[in-house]
User: Fold this.
Amino acid sequence: MKKYITFIVFFITLTMVIFGEYNIIFKDVVRSVKTFTIRKYKIKYFNLKELENKMNIDNLSTGKSGGIITYSNVENKTKLYISNIDAITTWKVYEVDSNILNPINFSKKVTIYNNKALIIDIQHREKKLNLFQYDFSTKKINLLYSLKDVLPVDPPKIKYNENYFVYYILNGYKKDGKNNDIQELYLYNIKDEKNIKIVESNGISHFDVNKSGNIVYVEYNSIKYYNSKDKTIKKIEFDKLYPEIIMDEPYFVTFLNEKDIAIYSNEKLVIFDIEKWNIKDVIYDIPENIVGLTGLNDGSILVNIYDYKGE
Assistant:
């Protein structure tokens, strides 16, 4: 067994030197993704613990297409690991030799969108946020946007689609000789190149944006919805609308489509219609130790879990 492992490692290293990219097959991680159909909803559980001995799961990010990306720094070079939730045993590794990515640190974040890597780069001294795109097919890195006079929270929090992206920044100022750190949530309109401040709050933990620029976000122990058309913010008051449904932290939120959102709370998923402003469905018996929630383009719901104990 040791000879086999040694050979595989040698082959991968050799291929990397020649081609700069290679595939890794992890047959044993096939059990890390389990799919269940509950009524009309397809739920995919992604157990990150199955991967933690193989790659850095702290940097792992999932996209709405089902793409998965993480990275590591080895000998001052950055390696990007790419897979898909529906083909989890196969990972393509790219060795990226670029000053932009080398090395990726806590002031950078990598996510995936439409089979391209998005690199969020924070330049603290210049108070600048740069958003780069790495194309896997051409191996080229392009600067998409550069926003000045902003300082995103560290590590960065950002959600992106082809029309908008939302980011969370730290806006520090001095009052009475003391530093005061205020955090702000912003919506950037890609087409119009306009920045809109949504809310000033230090308690935002999770958020998502749809293609219309509407935002759902968690603020402290509340779920709030921003309507980009009339620029209003509305709190979903579960205690008044549905007092029989117990909602409590931790919360995770995601858009399933343009009008439905999924909210995780208390081992259940609440499907909420933002147009009719009512609950469409409640799915119980969701594991408690989830670490991420993503509405996928195919209509399914991806639930990231650490150490799933289900069947």
Q: What stands out?
A: The CA atoms of residues 173 and 180 lie 5 Å apart. The mean pLDDT is 84.
